[in-house]
Design brief:
By secondary structure, this protein is α+β, with helices and mostly antiparallel strands. Helices cover 39% and strands 21% of the residues. The chain contains 15 helices and 16 strands. α5 runs parallel beside α9. It binds adenosine monophosphate.
Length: 419
């Protein structure tokens, strides 16, 4: 038997309503906050991600789906959207059109990670990017926007963590200090963290190893190394969040080990999904656009994982029941022909009525069973003596009341159903 590739998942019809509910909330909130949708290709040149995400990250160093296509170009399935959005921003010279672009997306991402609950190889993210503004209000808006979507979806067990990384010069000083702190503790670090000590020391904070966590708990904190401007930016972000009553905790472990990140970072975690608790991550990346060949432009954004959000919702019992039903089921009886029923179905469907009919030449009894299974609000009997007189019989399923209606007066049938 051919099965779906490990780490990929089918989304079956009975799961779709929750996906659609989430997508609808995302689209509505994005529109209330005036973010415009952007769609970019599924694959890009590999160099976009190696430069746009960073060689030393897990994503680039070991998780990308990369292949050489028939023309010899190195191609990568997108593991995240920010680099692609920034590429599109630069390529289409969007900065010439207006100074601030507020963009959002909903899309599949691909990372060859070890699959587990809440961690897939093809997964879906929605996210937003505001390119062209350095105001702390935008950082706060990102958090507000992401949080509002999760709340509206019905999630409760949420925590917002924020931190600031300042600017690269401040971070360099901090990294030196961290090196000093860890110098005589290296032997006690996990193998991964020993490597990170050399390649990307800030990422030791991401380690899930208990010993690493214990060591890092007493490490110097980045906020102590920020200058006045960075501290002010951070204060303002917090003030804006306070202003709208959004609760957060400052988490000095929330670092992103890449040079183009600046100032704010944030994460929204859920207590309802186990080890992979981050539903959403984001922050400011004022240096990325320049790094990808554009003009220096400040920007901020976030990405949220939809499978994890749906999992959290399932675990919290916040799913909404969506009883699917149809408006009308057409029951065919002799002497009506299939063509007669097919034509009626066509007219009803084109009038915006959810209509179903029998394709399996079933008995009248079996057709009624189908109508009941599909929770049809009405049944229209096409056939029998009435049909010979040019009539049909409309039955209201809830009350059982039946009414004879002329086939010729189609509008009457439609009006009755739409009422
Ligand atoms: P990142 O782009 O790594 O900052 O991730 C943003 C969000 O995407 C995370 O908080 C997760 O909710 C989700 N996510 C990241 N990687 C995966 C994955 N492999 N499977 C499912 N969701 C993921």
């Amino acid at each position: 038997m051919i099965k779906a590739i490990t780490g990929t998942k089918d989304i079956l019809p009975d799961q779709i309503s929750e996906w659609k509910r989430l997508e609808k909330i995302v689209e509505e909130q994005m529109s209330f906050f005036n973010y415009k949708e952007i769609r970019t290709p599924t694959f890009e040149e590999t160099v976009l991600f190696s430069r746009g995400i960073g060689e030393s990250t897990d994503i680039v160093s070991k998780e990308m789906y990369t292949f050489i296509d028939r023309s010899g170009t190195s191609i990568t399935l997108k593991p995240e959207m920010t680099a692609s959005v920034v590429r599109a921003f630069i390529e289409h010279k969007l900065s010439k059109k207006q100074s601030l672009h507020k963009l959002y997306y909903i899309s599949s991402m691909f990372r060859q990670e070890r699959p587990q609950a809440g961690r897939l190889r093809e997964f879906h993210q929605f996210g937003a990017e505001a390119i062209g503004g350095n105001d702390p209000m935008l950082d706060a808006e990102m958090i507000e926007l992401a949080y509002s979507i999760l709340k509206l979806f019905g999630l409760k067990n949420l925590e917002i963590k924020i931190n600031s990384l300042g600017v690269p010069s401040e971070r360099e000083k901090y990294k030196n200090e961290l090196q000093n702190y860890l110098k005589d503790k290296i032997d006690n670090l996990s193998e991964d963290s020993k490597k990170r000590f050399e390649t990307n020391i800030l990422r030791i904070f991401d380690s899930k190893d208990e010993k690493d966590i214990e060591i890092m708990a007493n490490a110097p904190k980045i906020l102590e190394f920020l200058g006045e401007e960075s501290l002010n930016h951070f204060e303002e972000v917090k003030n804006y969040l306070d202003e709208i009553g959004i609760k957060y905790t400052v988490d000095f472990k929330l670092v992103r080990g890449l040079d183009y990140y600046t100032n704010t970072t944030f994460e929204i975690v859920s207590g309802s999904v186990g080890a992979q608790s981050a539903l959403c991550g984001g922050g400011r990346y004022n240096l990325l656009i320049e790094q990808l060949g554009g003009q220096s432009t400040p920007a901020t954004g976030f990405a949220a994982g939809m499978e994890r959000i749906l999992l959290a919702c399932r675990n919290e019992g916040c799913e909404e029941k969506n009883e699917s039903s149809i408006d009308i089921y057409l029951v065919r009886m002799e002497p009506a022909k299939k063509q007669n029923v097919f034509k009626i179905a066509d007219r009803l469907r084109l009038s915006g009525i959810k209509t179903e009919l029998d394709y399996l030449s079933r008995s009248v009894k079996a057709q009624m069973r189908e109508a009941n299974r599909m929770k049809a609000k009405y049944v229209l009997f096409v056939g029998g003596e009435e049909f010979e007189k040019g009539n049909t019989v409309l039955k209201v399923m809830e009350t059982g009341i039946q009414e004879e209606l002329p086939l010729g007066k189609f509008d009457e049938i439609i009006n009755r159903i739409k009422k």
